[in-house]
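Tutorial sheet, problem 5. The four components below are modelled jointly, 438 residues in total.
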Amino acid sequence: MNAITLPPDAVKRARGRPRKTADERDDGNRRQDLLRAAARLFRQQGFAATSTRDIAAAAGMRSGSPFYHFENKEALLAAVMLEGMQRASGRQAGAMHAAASHGQALSARDCLRVLVRNHLEVLLGAESDFIPVMLYEWRSLSDVQRQAVNELRREYEAVWVPVLQALHDSGELQGDPSLARLMIFGALNWAVQWFEPGRRSSLDDLTEAALQLFLKEPA
Amino acid sequence: MNAITLPPDAVKRARGRPRKTADERDDGNRRQDLLRAAARLFRQQGFAATSTRDIAAAAGMRSGSPFYHFENKEALLAAVMLEGMQRASGRQAGAMHAAASHGQALSARDCLRVLVRNHLEVLLGAESDFIPVMLYEWRSLSDVQRQAVNELRREYEAVWVPVLQALHDSGELQGDPSLARLMIFGALNWAVQWFEPGRRSSLDDLTEAALQLFLKEPA
DNA sequence: CCTACCGATCGGTAGG
DNA sequence: CCTACCGATCGGTAGG
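Model answer (structure tokens):
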């Protein structure tokens, strides 16, 4: 009667590996491996120039296996971008919180310093393939996916707005703050193209150079 | 005796289209058509995502014909970039010359205004696919081709150096001028990602916003 | 997650 | 510059 009450594939399942049921598989790890490999390759070669076979191989899988974790190549790209934005937003919130809890009153200038420094870290630090992929493979995303990523992106950028507004009010930032924000992001994001980690300037140097370039003396 | 003095293929030629000899073929035009089509498609879809068939069709040719004009797909990309840089440098030299010949003494600030305005025009104006392709398809170039493009690029950027140095000397630009140059280029080049021609801000608006953001009052 | 495979597309070429 | 074509590669799937 055992044979009758068991679900039809129970026997087959019992013959599998002993310590893992279907629900406990380390799918999360393999998925993460794929994401990391995809981020690195998409950044180095671009989305269209990277084959799903390349990604599979880099993650130690066979050519068909990525499609067990992701519906298609585009979904993998979207996942890389979403992962990147989540990390970036998390780091940004953490950095702002940590800075604010040291001394209580944080000047707008110091706020911007924290934001710039964190942005450069996200862009150029260790494990930094995700955000560059988001910045430079935007057009490879479908409309629906673009919208999803855009929402996280807007959240991330929204944190900057009151800081820049305060700097504008104090005369430390001249001109339309929203145009200034676009140009500041451009100046920082462009560093992806020329920054070399061990060379000449550190991320701290860049941060100070940016503040010097963008900000005036307080009136 | 006419028949004897004519070159051997004169008869054949005489049967062809009446107004064009082999040497007068509009090869230049067809090549230019390919370059224009390639620039537009490379910008919209990226180099790897654009097939040579797409480009041929956009130029009104069959799939094999681009290879009559260019050795391979990479050579077509390099040609787009070189063409873009030549135009950009030409425009830049013209703009500086025209500005300098109005009043004799051009302040460093006015020089920068001319350079920024011209750069935005090259980047965002009409026929503006070539430079964005150069900026965002850099990695798709072979080393040899990269070097060739890089030479033109250095020439273009070299014009900015003394201007920024002068602004630094007068206190209008703070911080290391070479880092400032990289960040200024970044701020401007990023506009490719967000600028919409008919919308809100004009290129003149952007130019003034950039100067406001980057420059201090003269000491 | 692997094996084996498919249809489509791609860069490029020979010959005219 | 076109026609006709080739070998290679690609995203993705069925079945286990």
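Marking note: Residues 25, 30, 61-65, 68-69 of chain A lie near DNA strand C (CB under 10 Å from a C1'). Full credit if you identified this.
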